[in-house]
Predict the structure.
Amino acid sequence: MKTLETILNSLPGYAKDIKLNLSSLTNNHQYITDEQFYGVVLASAFASKNQELITAANNTIANQLDHTMLNGVKAAASIMAMTNIYYRFTDLVNNENYIKMSAGLRMNIIREHGVNNVDFEMWCLAVSIINGCSMCVSSHEKQLVKQHNISLEAIQLIAKISAVIHALARTIETSNI
């Protein structure tokens, strides 16, 4: 069974920094809970769109998160896949009229995800970072910091986890060439 550890152990020498960074983040994530950490890793793997990484992350994390939390992570990745594209469009088009218009897209899962709101916001932030949606990153960061009193160090940690998981996905793809 492929896990994150087996992937890390099979990385080529040029990706040593990715391996060291993920190990360091795994062993030192004191600003967020274990469940939040594992959720950020898995949400980031989903956003990476690399099936080998998604499978390995899921195999690694399956025993760390209960069924409800796993569904919450999937819900965050799913809804952000849509909203990140839409809101990135409104940002890129450089026409304020689109921002003023109602999106008209169903986003009920944002309110009805069944998990802790802080956890869900963290997972949405991780996906939004990878998907490069400025509006969504700003919105989720603001929710976490201003409404939930999450530290800037925790937000930075989420960004680092997302960056390392994304780099791991790209490394897997390039090392298979």
Remarks:
- The longest helix spans residues 67-92.
